[in-house]
Amino acid sequence: MAKVVMPQLGESVAEGTIGKWLKQPGDHVAKDEPLLEVITDKVNAEVPSPFEGVLEKILVEEGATVPHDAEIAIITAAGAEADTAPKPAAKATSVPADAAIAAAPAGAAEPDARPMVPVMDTTTHAAPNGSSSHASAASASTAESAHGDSSARMTPAVRMLLREHGLSPEQIEGTGHGGRITREDVMRFVEQAASAGGTTERGATAGAPAARAAEPAAVPSVPQAQPSASPPAPSPAPSGPSAAVAPSTSSVRWEPGQDEILIPLNQMRRGIANQMTKAAAVPVAYSTFEVDVTGVANLRSAQGEAYRAREGVGLSYLPFVIKAVVEALHSSPDINAHYTDEGLLRKRRINVGVAIAVENGLIVPVIHDADQLSINGLNRAIQDLSARARSNRLRLDDLQGGTFTVDNTGWFGSQLTVPILNVPEVCILTTEAVTKRPIVRETPDGDVIAIRSMMNLVAGYDHRATDGAQVGRFVKDVICWLEAVGPDMPIY
Questions:
Q1: Is 38 within 8 Å of 16 (Cβ atoms)?
Q2: 195 in a domain, yes or no?
Q3: Most buried in the list 76, 159, 352, 432, measured by CB within 10 Å?
Q4: Catalytic pick from 68, 121, 463, 477?
């Protein structure tokens, strides 16, 4: 028998939540076939099976949060004897998707130790080895029935919102990808019920299961990043008649005399906060450069319409910048690296992370072996990652292995950004808005003023790992490549 463990879900992600098992005990599983869906602070992703065989046992039920490398299932390898007898129902091991939050990072406790964790249900605790304990099997059964359709796919924040309003998934029509229930779907239902007089207070919605009305309201706690396994203190909520807690910015309703509304951090926002706190401890220096991208602009203007007709997508500036970056990294290998306490860990493969804005957050999926792709290949990869990131269809490997990050802040008109380093990478480059400006150009007949398409580039770098001179040479190579683009440059 082979044991399946929670994979590493990203360079800075220490744990994940079991969102949904896609296979059940007794099912045959092919190698690399989707086995379960895992939810992290950055993305919902399907985890492929590392083995072929029969799923013998599920060790961690849906909703439990465990660190990476924790054992979550057992698969009887193909060819080995498998126990095909019906499996008895697991006793009180089901945990609501966001009912417990494991605060300890991987390796913070002994394998059998159970650190104290903040929970949303006082009868449920998630242990780092994936086990769960409940007050009784009866309470687990009640909780399961109260959640209605256990196969409904949604984020922990949406599950929490359903519980707050005493709703079950069957009552909501999902409009997200694949019928996924979104926060907007829930709030739309709540508003419609309120306008029809069906809701008078939280937990007493018309049509909600009776079991939910009898349950105590869950009190969400917002964990803060801490270096130990001790339970983080929940953020204090404002009190008094002028304060309230709102589930989302899209559902804010101001009451008479109300001056403040607390918007709780969702899982992605908490993860971003933790990562930014780590990055703030790094001594980052910055350098700003100017590049003439008139040649790129002319190429896009000349070939853009034909490219869109052929490929079905537009041709942006970003693949040109990434192409310039990967070419320059070949000459500056120490920039394509991670910083460690032991030294600079230089990377052979060039995997470029691209920052993508999603609803209420930011994620950085990775283009692997970006130096092996043409401009068209990079453009298609960017479009693919962007589409899948915004529809929650990224795979685990899309978030792993980044060696350098490019952040396209210019799409919203920014002219100068101070980027935050994507640690442990040693450099990040932002591309600012392309604007036409009068520029002095040298000619054989003297200086002339010309209208050129200009772009600012900002490089942020870990000053422990590198210095301004090395980064300056690297960005100079990027600029030289971009300014050499002509109308005949091949994009395939």
A1: yes
A2: no
A3: 352
A4: 463
